[in-house]
Amino acid sequence: MMTNAILNPVKTLKPYKTKRRSQVKLLHSWRQNTSFGGETLQMVLTDERGEKIHATCKRNHIQSVQRKLPLGKWRVLTTFTVSQASGQYRPTTHPYKMTISDETVITNSDIIEDDIFLSLAKYEDIIDGTLKTHFLIDVMGKIVSLEPVQTVQVKGEDRKKVQFRLVDSSGKDIACCLWGKYAEQLETYVEREQPLICLIRFAKISFYRGEVQITNAFDASIVYLDPTMEEALKFKEKLMEDKLPLSLIEKRNGKKEVVLQEEDWNGLEIKTISELFVANQVLMLEVASHNESEECKTPFTKRKEEDADLPDKTSTSKKLCRASIKVEKKKEE
């Protein structure tokens, strides 16, 4: 009898067999429209062990599948096909993809399990390139350096974007940029002073100006702001325990921005020695030699090339304080 048939765990699903039976829950779904495949429904399914698989169905089955396989509910699927997973960005690491057709039978399950099966990526694995960029990831952190939502032109169309950084409980941070409807979610939070936790599911690892950046994968991502699931609550508790150092700085428009303490130095203006020379702030420098008691009285403009090209270790102050560098004072007559 079918009711006594063996359930196939998602991890064991392979091609070339259609008579299989799996118990799964729908974690996420979105519509996708391509020139070669038309409109399809894309899904991420999971079994009780948290093993996930990408699933899809064609346009003429979308309504039926959405009705029989609602979000967050467990169902038993019988008779479906499995093929090689492909695509530039894949929502799961499973090597195969499930296709639901008109032959697929979807029935109810008596399982009650509310776990959303997060697979949170470690910041160090994202930053050092350990994770492959064609797999979508789950990432969570505290939002800092939240910029105002912007409207920009992309291929002749107006699109909204917002940039910020996410910080984990150990203080590591990573750049983020959200587009479209995901950027709009943050519009009401720009003025907020309280800490804001953000969870991005099925996020894309990209690169911008040489830096790793997290962004949404078209419509495949989900953004949670101030999430309340167990993992998010534990993350908040960890932040409170570690007391991650943050400081407030003022933006040019008068708004406050939360940034990492160490980034406060980024606003300092650095001047070279040549710039100070042009500004009539001539510093007579003495380079340490075997006889440190000798004073350097050679004019700056006649100094040897290798001495003139010494690395600038000054700040914007006129007075230079270094053990091996002195300021030549004008001798009193």
Automatic annotation (TrEMBL):
Highest taxon in the source lineage: Eukaryota
Domain Replication protein A 70 kDa DNA-binding subunit B/D first OB fold: 8-108
Record keyword Transferase present: no
Bias kind Basic and acidic residues: ranges: 292-312
Residue ranges of every copy of the Replication protein A OB domain listed in the record: 134-211
Keyword Ribonucleoprotein applies: no
Region described as Disordered: spans on this chain: 292-318
Pfam families: DUF223, REPA_OB_2
GO MF term set: DNA binding
Keywords: DNA-binding
Protein name: DUF223 domain-containing protein
Protein species of origin: Brassica carinata (Ethiopian mustard)
